[in-house]
Design goal:
Elements lengths: L6 E7 L2 E8 L2 E5 L7 H8 L3 E6 L5 H4 L2 H8 L3 E3 L16 E2 L1 H17 L8 E3 L13 E5 L8 E5 L3 E5 L2 E2 L5 E2 L2 E2 L2 H12 L5 E4 L5 E2 L6
Parallel strand pairs: 3-4, 4-5, 5-7, 10-14
Antiparallel strand pairs: 1-2, 2-3, 6-13, 8-9, 9-10, 11-12, 14-15
Length: 216
């Protein structure tokens, strides 16, 4: 059988990352950025036949463009059901931070988190641990990574590359995500990632690295 070759393209919108995971001309978009980056994300996606949008979690910097892009390409948006309440209000799952980096990031983000309501896409599908994305042309599976939010997920591509959302971040160096709603769950998710062994990790914030990061 011919091996499927996937490409992962980082779309950097300020300090936020979205990712196009492509198999030839077909692609899915993992996270969508905030409204300020809409035109850039749209332009990048327009080079592909888009099949699906996946949200690693429902915060504005990852999900604000989801409804608009989904409508433009007439595709569904995949999300974990535990994050549905965040379309209505960030306050349903408030965040706590650790360390100097975390306090700075939370301080800069808090006003936007509290004052922005994310439009809920019309075509939502719910995903959970182990769900395959092969129906959308991508050899990838959903991995539940709660802690940053209750419904945070990652996308494990071909057992080689992992898109981790904000379960981890790489602001200064790779580490457990500096913002969390449940620290115990976040630590468990980080341990789950570490136990995978060799992977290239793609972060919601920061450049990709190997599977080595600071635990707390």
């Amino acid at each position: 059988m011919e091996q499927t070759i996937h490409t992962i393209r980082r779309i950097q919108c300020g300090t936020d990352n979205c990712y196009l995971v492509a198999n030839g001309s077909n692609a899915i978009l993992v996270d969508t950025g905030s409204a300020a980056g809409y035109e850039k994300v749209l332009a990048e996606c327009s080079s592909y036949t888009m099949k699906l949008i996946v949200l690693t979690h429902v915060h504005f910097d990852h999900a604000e463009n989801a409804a608009r892009l989904a409508k433009h390409f007439d595709i569904p948006v995949a999300v974990h059901q535990a994050d549905l309440e965040l379309f209505d209000s960030y306050d349903r799952q408030p965040l706590i931070s650790y360390g100097t980096v975390g306090r700075i990031v939370l301080g800069l983000s808090l006003n936007d988190l509290r004052n922005r309501r994310i439009e809920k896409p019309e075509k939502l599908i719910y995903v959970k641990e182990g769900d395959s994305l092969s129906a959308y042309g991508i050899d990838a599976k959903v991995m539940e990574l709660p802690g940053h939010t209750a419904g945070s997920i990652g996308i494990d591509v071909a057992g080689k590359e992992l898109l981790v959302g904000d379960a981890l971040d790489n602001w200064l160096r790779p580490a457990i995500g500096h913002l969390y709603s449940n620290l115990d769950a976040l630590r468990e998710s980080a341990g789950k990632i570490k136990a995978l062994g060799e992977r290239t990790l793609y972060y919601g914030h920061g450049k990709a690295t190997g599977n080595k990061f600071k635990m707390i």
